[in-house]
Amino acid sequence: MSGAADGSAGDHRDRWLISYADLVTLLFSLFVVLYAAADESRARAVQSAINAQISGAPSSPPGRMPGGRGVLPGADSLLDARDAVARALSANDSLRTRTRMTEVERGFIVSLAEAGFFDPGDAAVRPEADALLDSLAETLKSSQALVRVEGHTDSTPIATLRYPSNWELSSARASAVLARLVARGVPAARISVAGYAGERPVADNDTPAGRALNRRVDLVVLQAQ
Known about the structure:
The protein has helices at 2-13, 16-37, 40-55, 75-91, 93-98, 114-117, 130-140, 166-183, 208-214; strands spanning 99-104, 107-113, 146-152, 191-195, 216-222. By secondary structure, the chain is an alpha+beta fold.
């Protein structure tokens, strides 16, 4: 009797090992996912293996998988949009000299220079720049990425009958670009617009070159959440 009692007590004492083993398994799974997320090919391989374990089907070949190049929703669409814009810029000298593309945490920004798209103090897109916006629209309309059109000016005040301040001018320029993108097929549900006047400079407003960089419309292309 005493032997049986001792065995039962030992079983109770060792039950913590079950919870400990579960914790170790969960931590291992977490680090596998984090490791896979850092590399496209690893992410595809891990996703394929997990799907195979869940469904009982054989793992997919190491080619392109539905849903993308990573483990985050929409990452594939965003990368496709970025690559398409980069190709459009490299293939069009005029577009490349009038724009700048920079990477940000959730996507990328295409900056349209005032000198290439607008006359000073005006929000109407120059006729010769229409084709450039059409090229950008063509690369963005098939993507599921979100597009925020932001208008920016330098710090020099403006006061005209049409644009009493830089707030109105920056908002009008952003709206003009948005209208062109929507007219060329970019879904309106994926686009928003904002005007920031001279409150978000990217260069020094004390120099002509800096002010020229600040006068821009940014297409902020972000991963859909």
